[in-house]
Amino acid sequence: MITKGRLGARAFIVGAGVGGLAAAASLAPFFETVEVLDKDELPDRARPRKGVSQDLQVHILLKGGELALERLLPGTRAALLAAGATDVRQTGDVSLWERDAWHPARDLGHSQLMMSRPAFERVLRRQVLQLGNVVIRDRSPVDALPSDADLTVIATGRGDRLLVDVEVPATMLGIEVNYSSVRFAKPERFRGEGRFIGCIPQPPDDRYGLVCPVENDEWLITLCSRFGNRVPGDIDGFRAYAAALPVPDIAQRLCEAVPLTPVRTYRVAEARWRHFERASGLPSCVLPIGDCISSFNPTFGQGMSVAAGHAIALRDVLTDWSGPLEGVASAYLPRAAEISRQAWSLAAMVDLEYPRTEGERPANFDKFVLGSEAMRRAAMLYPEVQLLRFEIGNLVKPDSAARSGPAARLVAREMARAGGRSRER
Predict the structure, then answer these.
(1) Which residues contact 346 (CB under 8 A, 6 or more apart)?
(2) What is the side-by-side order of every strand in the sheet holding 151-154?
(3) CA separation (Å) from 348 to 144, 224, 256, 300, 363?
(4) What is the rounded distance in angstroms from the CA atom of residue 283 to the CA atom of residue 281?
(5) Cystine design at 51: which of 29, 40, 167, 286 (Cβ 3.0–4.6 Å)?
């Protein structure tokens, strides 16, 4: 239900990607009109657009992101399923080979929705427009901050230009990730299979592969590498790269699959976390969201879910707000930073295990790696640890949940065992 005019007459959002659409849902109850502006033509069907340069790659909506979108836009899960999203049960429909072993197949009581990025956006645009007071204007480039808005949200992603002159401390990692994707029609024997497959070898092996079931009973298959190692840009080379992975499951599906697109390649040189909560000179009543704040190694699939989490943080601030809107930033930005912090910690600590990653390793880095490895091994043994690891990694629970409770004690026991084995050697 819209409570019109509670905080202001007009809010602007620049950018109609997932972050911008989530922001529109968070603002709609508090402003008479919310206008979302995007420079692209926004298609009525699920097709790529220029402003999302990686939208032909695999995009994963983490469980925490799905729950956040459902809170912002009730009925989103049902709408995604109706549009063809694949409901992947954890872990009954998942085959994940991590470092040296397959994850155990257990019922964790969760499932995740998987579909292509253009299809995600199309569903979310329709959901947002149903709110009644949101207007989405495509082919509307914004070259300067609007002067006639009560509140403006910047959701222009990694390539943000509107806030480029603001002095913002940043944490940077040189990750040099390269990844390539192809959309495939499934061969007959795999029709109807909703299995997600991941192959994540032990660092410093920088190969990586994902099979993601998407709408129309098709696959989006992504192969990844780092630094000088590159996934070939032709379909035969793509198949050969998959065949060299430590497990054969991805290559087996590629053998008979029919490519529906060329090999699409994308490169990300760095991960960046801009600490707007410590910035000086941020224009009044202007808020960043999503990738404008933090852009991660995209192969961890965190971007859409972090943006949705930022939108929840903004909505929670506005729900109890009674003062001038100029003060919203100081309340919202620390909450957004905490959401970014957890996602950054999960991704960056793995990135930093690769010796060629550029960036400062924290003083406790070796201890963190040992703890992370102990949790992975404990998850192989104990269902409750596997569930907790999934929920933290999917931003359902805070990472502080790993420091207390029965599952945490099982992880500590595994760390002690590892320490004993190390001393024996």
Answers:
(1) 300, 302, 392, 393, 399
(2) 134-137, 31-37, 8-14, 151-154, 286-288
(3) 33, 17, 36, 10, 14
(4) 6
(5) 40
Q: How far apart are CA 336 and CA 57, in angstroms?
A: 26
Q: How many domains does the chain have?
A: 1
Q: What is the pLDDT of residues 79-98, one digit of tens each?
A: 999 999 999 999 999 999 99
18/157 Cα distance (integer angstroms): 10
Residues in contact with 31: Cβ distance below 8 Å, sequence separation at least 6, in sequence order: 4, 5, 6, 7, 8, 9, 10, 11, 133, 150, 151
322 located within any domain: no
Predicted local confidence at residue 222, as pLDDT? 96
Q: Would residue 262 count as lying in a domain?
A: no
pLDDT over 70 percentage in the chain: 97
Residue 385 burial (CB count, 10 A): 24
Q: Cα angle at 279 between 171 and 22, to 5 degrees?
A: 80
State pLDDT tens for residues 373-423: 999 999 999 999 999 999 999 999 999 999 888 888 999 898 888 765 544
Helix pair 383-393, 328-351: axis angle to 10 deg: 130
Q: Looking at the domain assignment, is residue 299 inside a domain? A: no
Angle between helices 235-243 and 249-256 (to 10 degrees): 150
Give the chain's residues under pLDDT 70. Answer: 1-5, 53, 419-425
> Is-contact 163 25, C-beta < 8 A?
no
Residue 232: burial class (beta carbons within 10 Å; 0-12, 13-18, 19+): middle
The domain of 378 spans 365-424
Residue with tokens 């029919």: 258
What is the pLDDT at residue 252?
96
- Which pLDDT score, from 0 to 100, does residue 294 have? 96
Instruction: Flag whether 410 is in a domain.
Output: yes
Phi, psi of 127 (to 5 degrees): -65, -45
pLDDT of residue 2: 43
